[in-house]
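Fold it.
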Amino acid sequence: MWDLIFKGGPLMSAILLCSIFALAVFIERWIYFKKAKVNVDDFMNQIRDNLKRNKILEAITLCDNLSSPLSSVLKAGILKYDCPRDEIKEAIDDASLHEVPKLERNLGIIATIAHIAPLLGLLGTVQGMIQSFRVIEEKAFSGVGANPSDLAGGIWVSLLTTAAGLVVAIPAYVAHNYLVSRVNDFVTEMEQSATSLVNILITRGEEHEV
């Protein structure tokens, strides 16, 4: 393996570095999403029960005990429990604007690697082809016939970078799409739970007025 990387030249090292970055980002995001995942139904049931019993502090504490974008967004709404609907929704929207970028953090790195890895591979191949034909030209000028093995050997070495670029780019593209789908799932859960929370708070307020 290291022999192939060495033969591929400097661009092969750059592709290898890209693969390490992509893997590191994927692992970091996977761990983050795993920690941020909550049982939405159970969590919302607990929030609903506390709010119906007018246990606002308990509901806030419940949100604080979870390290999740969902709990942060809901906490922002609960803190406005005595405010009109528009103010509650505005607080939730503001919290969402703060939490969604946390979910999307570093996804651009994987997307960039998925795009540039094949280009680096292609550039390495072009460089290898140029060098191969240069050798043939030099032998022609010196009056020595070019051996087909000279061209064949140069070509297969130069194609190593293209293969390496694709090997890195394809998993990176799949990983990026997977992480984006996870982000979309979190955002959907936040939107649905936020809507439920607003309805719970408004209903609670109306019941207390009566």
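The chain has a mean pLDDT of 85.
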